[in-house]
């Protein structure tokens, strides 16, 4: 079941990119999706419909409005890659109606709490602060920012967003990005407070390690597009 | 493959990463030559003799090393490099775009000695500095640096770093008389770094725009008012007087933090491209996406098909033949 959910999460990310969704709306869609299935029985609802509705709802919440038509087309294409786009017939309109009704159902299940504090804003500010402290040539030749952003985006394939605080996730992906490239924050050893503690007062090293571990786990479900 | 980056990572993680890389990336032609040269004992310190600190790190991050080795072809690919050159930015003074923060080293409480050392390591010709005139001589004036006006935003006010502005780098304000007579001790000056002696920690500045790189040449050098001091410096001063304030609080109470466009603004500032969103998932590498799968392409096809159907139903096509 978990595997199924994760694969579905992957589907959603593909859809998000092909719909031209920005990172925050995608994050909102995934959070809505994961949260919905925490509150309900996995078997009771069609995950594909829930995924499409999550995307639709997130688009509204984050002011990047998407047409249901586009959502349906991209999802359908994923499942029938060789087929033609769906005809605009009654089946299509029924599907569209389902999405709209599903949206209301999901809003009720989530008690209309569909706006979230995402790690993205925090991560970007942390990156600016770190950039000023690092040597500019070091920064230029090491893709810390891009990698951290990629890690954060990829984290939505799992339910990290539900288990950890936004600031903590932001620090953890930054920590992993620095580790990956072997970047040392200057004068770390001489500092009174480590950089990651500065960014979040209640963060601890074990929490960072937990998030990093969970994040790395998410990548084990990764496969090529068949 | 980015050799320097790979070497940097190997230096940090040591021989265990090297062996993991060898097994994970054995089929990758780009890595075969790289891994061969990285293991040569003649190049730099051999990975088998790590520093004490590094050794501790290696023991508990084997999970991370496995991750690195599996994703190495993506992580160290040259395409990750940003194409934009490392031009030093103008200090963004508008507090509305994002939360401008005091320097990180101030929160980390890094000793002055280290801040000073790192300042002299990282400062470059063409950087803008701001300081107060401490004395005026016949050959020029000395100023004590308060903060930076471009590039790296550092906390240097208490480091008592002085810079000399030689007479020849002071533009004259009248046709006759001494150019220096225009200035007084205590004046706040914005200047461009012209010369650096890193070993002796000596700086020479200029008030001519020609000392600045082209993209900064519009910035006014010379006397400025205290209102023109950069926002990051003013925030830094506030933090000094209230040293218990946390990074998080300052950030969240800043107007720029709630700017609806803050994410887009900072993405651009950091050079992260959302139109080609980065990912380390193999299935999400954009080269695997066909243009035909995107929403706009599908919609066009669908509309065309529907339009054709409408024509056929109406019988209009008879008139076209």
Automatic annotation (TrEMBL), chain A:
One of its GO terms (biological process) is regulation of transcription by RNA polymerase II. GO terms for cellular component: cyclin-dependent protein kinase holoenzyme complex. SUPFAM superfamilies: Cyclin-like. One of its GO terms (molecular function) is cyclin-dependent protein serine/threonine kinase regulator activity. SMART domains: CYCLIN (SM00385). Signal peptide: none annotated. Residues 17-108 form the Cyclin-like domain. Transmembrane segments: none annotated. It comes from the Eukaryota. Keywords: Acetylation, Cyclin. Pfam families: Cyclin_N (PF00134). Belongs to the cyclin family. Cyclin-like FAM58 subfamily. Activating cyclin for the cyclin-associated kinase CDK10. This is Cyclin-Q. It comes from Colobus angolensis palliatus.
UniProtKB/TrEMBL annotation, chain B:
InterPro entries: NA-bd_OB-fold, S1_domain, TTC14. One of its GO terms (molecular function) is nucleic acid binding. Residues 126-208 form the S1 motif domain. Transmembrane segments: none annotated. It comes from the Eukaryota. Residues 35-56 are annotated as: Disordered. Coiled coil: none annotated. PANTHER family: TETRATRICOPEPTIDE REPEAT PROTEIN 14. This is S1 motif domain-containing protein. It comes from Colobus angolensis palliatus (Peters' Angolan colobus).
């Amino acid at each position: 079941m978990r595997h199924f959910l994760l694969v579905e999460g992957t589907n959603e990310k593909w859809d998000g990119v092909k719909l031209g969704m920005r990172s925050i709306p995608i994050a909102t869609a995934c959070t809505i999706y994961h949260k919905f299935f925490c509150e309900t029985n996995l078997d009771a609802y069609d995950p594909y419909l829930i995924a499409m509705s999550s995307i639709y709802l997130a688009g509204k919440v984050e002011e990047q409005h998407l047409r249901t038509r586009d959502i349906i087309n991209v999802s359908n294409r994923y499942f029938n890659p060789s087929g033609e786009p769906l005809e605009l017939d009654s089946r299509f309109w029924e599907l569209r109606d389902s999405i709209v009704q599903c949206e209301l159902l999901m809003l009720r299940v989530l008690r209309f709490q569909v706006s979230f504090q995402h790690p993205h804003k925090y991560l970007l500010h942390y990156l600016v602060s770190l950039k000023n402290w690092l040597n500019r040539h070091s920064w230029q030749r090491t893709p810390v920012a891009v990698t951290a952003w990629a890690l954060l985006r990829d984290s939505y394939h799992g339910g990290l967003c539900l288990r950890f605080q936004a600031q903590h996730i932001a620090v953890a992906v930054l920590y992993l990005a620095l580790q990956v490239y072997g970047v040392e924050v200057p004068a770390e050893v001489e500092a009174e407070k480590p950089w990651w503690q500065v960014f979040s007062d209640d963060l601890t090293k074990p929490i960072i390690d937990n998030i990093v571990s969970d994040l790395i786990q998410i990548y084990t479900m990764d496969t090529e597009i068949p | 493959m980015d050799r320097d980056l790979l070497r940097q990572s190997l230096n940090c993680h040591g021989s265990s990463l090297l062996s993991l890389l060898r097994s994970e990336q054995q089929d990758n032609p780009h890595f075969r030559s790289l891994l061969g040269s990285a293991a040569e004992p003649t190049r730099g310190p051999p990975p088998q003799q790590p520093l004490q600190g590094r050794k501790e790190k290696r023991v508990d991050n084997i999970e991370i090393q496995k991750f690195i080795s599996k994703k190495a072809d993506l992580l160290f690919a040259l395409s990750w490099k940003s194409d934009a050159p490392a031009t030093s930015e103008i200090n963004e003074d508008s507090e509305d775009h994002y939360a401008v923060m005091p320097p990180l080293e101030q929160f980390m409480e890094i000793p002055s000695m280290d801040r000073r050392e790192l300042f002299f390591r990282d400062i470059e010709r063409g950087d803008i500095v701001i300081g107060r005139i401490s004395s005026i001589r016949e050959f020029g004036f000395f100023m004590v640096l308060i903060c930076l006006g471009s590039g790296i935003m550092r906390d240097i006010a208490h480091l008592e770093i002085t810079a000399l502005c030689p007479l020849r780098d002071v533009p004259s304000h009248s046709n006759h008389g001494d150019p220096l007579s225009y200035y007084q001790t205590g004046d706040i000056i914005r200047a461009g770094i012209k010369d650096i002696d890193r070993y002796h920690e000596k700086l020479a500045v200029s008030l001519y725009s020609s000392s600045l790189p082209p993209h900064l040449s519009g910035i006014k050098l010379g006397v400025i008012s205290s209102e023109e001091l950069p926002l990051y410096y003013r925030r830094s001063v506030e933090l000094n007087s209230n040293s218990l304030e946390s990074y998080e609080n300052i950030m969240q109470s800043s107007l720029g933090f709630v700017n609806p466009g803050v994410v887009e603004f900072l993405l651009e500032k950091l050079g992260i491209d959302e139109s080609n969103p980065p990912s380390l998932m193999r299935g999400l590498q954009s080269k695997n996406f066909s243009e035909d799968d995107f929403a706009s392409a599908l919609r066009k096809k669908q509309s065309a098909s529907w339009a054709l159907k409408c024509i056929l139903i109406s019988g209009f096509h008879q008139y076209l033949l």
